[in-house]
Amino acid sequence: MLLTLTALGTHILEEGKIIIPMINKKLDAEGNIVDSTLIGNFKALFNAFQRSISL
């Protein structure tokens, strides 16, 4: 997805990127995030996004 967004000329924040190895081990059967580190990563990502649109 990153390559497609870059090709479209989208501005990508470095702190707005997240890589999730072994995602199946971090979700429960309903698809909810159960890994506390991943939850923290998403919070940081959303905070970075919020800062970028508040400028």
Would you mind describing this structure in some detail?
This protein has 55 residues and is mainly α. The mean pLDDT is 89. The chain has helices at 2-7, 36-54. The two termini are 25 Å apart. The radius of gyration is 13 Å and the shape is globular.
Question: In this structure, how is the largest beta sheet organized?
Answer: none
Number of helices: 2
Number of strands: 0
Weakly predicted, low-confidence segments = none
Provide the β-strand percentage band: under 5%
Question: Structural class, from helix and strand content?
Answer: mainly alpha
Helix content: 40-55%
The termini sit apart by 25 Å
Order of helices and strands: HH
Mean pLDDT: 89
Calculate Rg over CA atoms. 13 Å
The backbone outline, from C-alpha atoms, is globular
Keywords:
55 residues, mainly alpha, 2 helices
